[in-house]
Write a structure and sequence with these properties.
The chain is mainly alpha-helical. It contains 5 helices and no strands.
Length: about 150
């Protein structure tokens, strides 16, 4: 298993450089056109020249915006944002009220539809029972034989 490790590392770097090159905007590509970089990465990927060349010289790297530290942890220490719990966030609470109003309107529509359907069922069952009892006067109820 250990003998495959160098091959897998080369393959991983090759794939990373290829995808990074494809996702990089044309304005951030240095030296060669983007299409040429893709070809260089694909042709010289097995010997790591293409991917390493792309990572070192092909992509324009920017320093962290606003300075404030050379590592991500330093930057985050200097640019901390205040976290607000959802129950203290007015925007979140407003969205809950809007959703609640929508849900209440939907519930009222469902209740009205249910009442309408129940009334239709009552009318249909009432008409069916009147027709079966013979109360309309057209035909007498059937006689029972003992």
């Amino acid at each position: 298993m250990l003998r495959y490790l160098p091959f897998l590392l080369v393959l991983a770097l090759w794939i990373y450089a290829f995808i990074d090159c494809l996702n990089t905007p044309e304005s951030q590509v240095r030296g060669l056109p983007k299409v040429v970089w893709v070809i260089v990465i694909l042709l010289f990927g097995e010997v790591l020249i293409g991917p390493i060349a792309w990572l070192v010289a092909g992509k324009q790297r920017y320093p962290v915006a606003g300075g404030g530290g050379s590592t991500p942890s330093e930057w985050h220490r200097n640019h901390s944002t205040k976290w607000v719990a959802p129950d203290d966030n007015p925007e979140f609470l407003r969205s809950l009220k809007e959703e609640n109003k929508k849900d209440e309107a939907l519930l009222k529509d469902w209740e009205a539809d249910l009442r309408r359907r129940e009334e239709e069922l009552r009318r249909k069952s009432g008409e069916a029972s009147e027709g079966n009892n013979g109360t309309n006067g057209d035909t007498p109820p059937p006689a029972k034989d003992h």
